[in-house]
Fold each of these.
Amino acid sequence: MAQVRVTAPLAPGKPADKQVRADKQVRNALEWIAIVVGALLAAFIVKTLLIQAFYIPSLSMYPTLEKGDRVLVNKVSYKLHDVHRGDVVVFERPPNAGAQGIKDLIKRVIGLPGDIIESRDGIVYINDRALREPYIDDGDRTDNLSRRQVPARHLFVMGDNRDDSEDSRIFGAIDQKLVVGRAFVRVWPVWRFSLL
């Protein structure tokens, strides 16, 4: 008759039990590290390639945007289609622009490549047709905009607050290569959340 050997279960606190707990703790720690690294990597990819948040440092885009607002910028859209007149864009500060210490600016696209742009009696004209601008305050005028043509691969940008905006009227049309992306939504403050 074969003998069957019965082994008693290990009592709690034995070395094998401690090893199991230690292995579980290491596994949990590695899972958390993987989650944190994955989240940071995903955030980096999204910020670098897809969407980025920007802070509004001035009143140059008032009443559309106020100082302190935060917007999200779509960095992919202009790889899929051309810039449209009326888009609110974030772009790298041109070398000849003021606003030292501010890396990126935000303005509205008014003139596209090849457009003839000028102001007459405070109204913007594009290719000799008055531009409808519902985004500026009633009574605001656009002055100091002499007749000019927007060069190829350039954009003419202006702030909605025409009396308090350093824009293409001062530093000229911007190279399209400077455009970071299109601002599409205000996310802060939350009570002013809106699409742009």
Amino acid sequence: MRERGYNQVALVAMPLADLNGWQYAPRALARVRETRSQVGLTAEQRKENMQDAFGAEARQVAGKDVLLMDDVATTGATLSACARALLGAGAKSVCALTLARALPHHGLTVV
């Protein structure tokens, strides 16, 4: 949001939530620690970079099934860190949905 002036995931998440009668809670998860850019980092470096970078609001997620959305999944480090924060705040389950997945440049393949 700060870099682009808009939240590209929200443009998909809000109508998806509305269409399905789900609660849209963009403030349930927040970055609590600044991290460096993930560009050019290895999978292990990305994981370390995202360690404890997010916090979740227990009041909003405790006991709930959460759908976590991101625009692009590369190694999954960000999604994993977010899921850990949500589960740590008491979410019953966390599923992730991404709009795109980065592949060959980072040594990833489709399985």
